[in-house]
Amino acid sequence: MPAIAALRAFFTATMSQLTGNKAMVDLLAAGPPTNADLERCLSHLVRIGQEAVDRSRADRTLAPEVTAHDIAYQLLGLIRIAQLVPDGDPDAVGHQVDLALRGLAAR
Length: 107
What we know:
This protein has five helices and no strands. By secondary structure, the protein is an all-alpha fold. It has one domain. Helix 1 runs antiparallel to helix 3 and helix 4 packs antiparallel against helix 5. This is Tetracyclin repressor-like C-terminal domain-containing protein.
């Protein structure tokens, strides 16, 4: 599966789960996390991002300047957006994922 498609699946699945669980979104997005919490979360997301960056070296579906940290930060941004998506609307979720991925995709 191309890197951009794998990220789309991961971002969409994550956002769908979160928008269906407003309490979890509020917990993740409420206030600043402790340094240890943030480091664990970022470490996990950076590992996933690195897999996409590595895959993209072969399929070139991500912009060459995209880093694993960029991918992690995009998902963290989407988590904040999840607080605003009315009733977990799948069309709204898909639209926000598409917008984030446009910024990561190769041109």
